[in-house]
Amino acid sequence: MSNISKSIIDTERLYLRELTTDDASFIFALVNSPDFHRYIGDKSVRNLEDAREYIRNGPQVSYRSNGFGLYCTLIKSSETPIGICGLVKRDTLELPDIGFAFLPEYYGKGFGYESAKGVLEHDVAAGFAQIAAITSPDNDRSIKLLKKLGFNFKGHKQMADNEPPCKYFERPGNQPE
Hints:
Layout: E1 9-10, E2 14-18, H1 24-31, H2 34-39, H3 48-57, H4 59-66, E3 70-75, E4 80-88, E5 97-102, H5 111-125, E6 130-135, H6 140-148, E7 152-157, E8 166-172
Antiparallel strand pairs: 1-2, 2-3, 3-4, 4-5, 6-8, 7-8
């Protein structure tokens, strides 16, 4: 069975589906990329078993608990996983927030915008009134993408005591593209 048949969100060039433990090698590469560490953080994924645990204890728990989560983002034509994109529900935020990360070789090709737009359209249709976003203050690429998607900067939020504040954005769920 093709992974495309398990797709949750389809766009012109991409499809998004739930992460499975079969995605461990992809997740290992993604969460250990330099930009992931710089802008998102070290998830302590040091081997493939850690990657499987990350998938089981993060995205898969979110799918069951919230009905949404970070999805594996793949190129339709090759079924190549290139990133993750979806909504996250954090204890420190009132609203669900959109998250995305891509392997560096796929930067600058419009995949972030295309996948995030697909997530927003899917989740607006599911009835979310508003969606938030957070980013490191110096993550210019993500800030530019959030603005292009219609997010408005609202201020800074302290997500954890030992971390610097993040930039906080919101987007009305029913906002037209």
